[in-house]
Write a structure and sequence with these properties.
GO terms for molecular function: transmembrane transporter activity. With 400 residues, the chain is mostly helical. Helices cover 84% and strands 0% of the residues. The chain has two domains: 8-194, MFS general substrate transporter like domains (Growth Hormone, Chain: A, Up-down Bundle), CATH 1.20.1250; 207-400, MFS general substrate transporter like domains (Growth Hormone, Chain: A, Up-down Bundle), CATH 1.20.1250.20. It contains 14 helices and no strands.
Amino acid sequence: MSRAHAPGSAPIWALAVGQTLTYAGVYYAFPAILPDLLAETGWTAAELAAGPTLGFMVMAALTPFTGRWVDRGWGGELLTYMPILAALGVAALGFAPSPGWWLGIWAVLGVAQATCLYETCFAFLTRRLGEGARLAITRVTLVAGFAGTLTFPLGDILARAYGGQGALIGFSLLILFGAVPVNAWAVRALRRMERAEAPRRHPPEPGALQAALRRPAFWAISAIFGLIWLNHGVLLTFILMLFQDRGASAGMATLAAACIGPSQVAGRAVLLAFASRISNARASLWSLASVLGAGVILWGAGWLPALIFVFAMLQGAGAGLLSNLRPMLVADLLGRRGFGAISGAVAVTPILASAAAPSFGAALLGLGGPGLIYGACLAMAAAGLAIGAGLLVRREEEGG
């Protein structure tokens, strides 16, 4: 192992902690305290959900530019300073006097999400570590998978003590005094490291993205991840309400929701352990089947509420695996020529799906209650598996 890899272990783990705390405060805090926010503000679920939706839309618009900023050498600054903007934004949500202010603050949080979460972190690591970035990124995702595990119990504690709006201020402090200093230290440490082999910049590859857009596989991959991320986003946003609708107590619902994070980590760990024995296509099909099975189990939890824990394990493992498999599928099915541009284009669909999920879920809830959410999410998972099977089974049979 090159010396570019070994000395980086401590700062990599520090960045993993920083991503965990940032995701906890920005991404998971909203679903963790949604019932409390509904009770305190008097706003509708649709009004509250419009905030995260707008934030994801801003994130989707800015994400294609994030890699360019990192390439220009600003990745460390983004990871160091933009979590401060995230912390201020989350704190401001706790003081939002109206739905209009709520939306405006979420627009600012969309900028923060685009510049200090996974996409920026991974691009920064790739630029600094070259080939060693693959292991570093895996370490980050393994730790950050526990963000939900941290957030749901912490959100319950904070909301009981200070209310939902007060809990938001608590989450902002978690980012400000947790994520910001560890990110700053990690960035400085990584910048002091000398890369054993500076990654070679490949010449521009004009036409690669346009060629990919003409291939059915591009649109199939985009559809699969759009459907699964819409499914996962809807379920995650309203998970506490859905679990209680299935007959679980508030404490049981919180505990089950917290199991999704460890399940994501477990799924990624299994993929890492069996990477040489299972193809990307087969792992993707098993992951899609896991999400579909989770939908069936959630429906059946109306007869046995304890099944929500099985749902959490299947949903978390399936979604966690798929998040790691997406770039591998892009490379396997669309090739490595123009990989960055093509992968970035594919990523827009799941980001937009995440943007739509809170409002789409709120609309389903208003139109048909929890039952419509169960049915719609089950249909999304089934469609994702069907498209995946059509795309990947032939690839697997060909030995690809």
